[in-house]
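Quick one: structure for this chain?
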Amino acid sequence: MRAGTLLTFALLILVAGVAGCSRGADVVEGPDGTRLLVASGEAPRMEALGTGRLTRGEDGCLYLAGDGYQDLLVWPAGTRLADDEAAVHVPGAEPVVIGSDVELVGGGVAADERTLPELPGECMADTVFLVSSVDAG
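Got it. Here's what it folds into:
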């Protein structure tokens, strides 16, 4: 099997697995309007490293932003905002401060109805990064 065919096959399996799971996101909204999207249900564990700055958009949603990209973040179940809303607490990891450079483990998927049918309309992006964990560095 050629490498290109094998890669295409692997991507189709990944997309089918993502589409086949319950892929909604619960919205946790803080008093200042920060919106934290938390996976509702079990998500497939992806292992890509996403690096950039954890930012809060004008819509209140959290994004991973870098040079030429801004991916909407969906955090793993159990994630919560800090009481002062300055950080995100991911189970089993140190708090991730909003506005800081971060390394997140997970994977990017297209933000469309086939892969993530229940994203809230107020949080918009072409790509969603499904966070599996925070890289301790």
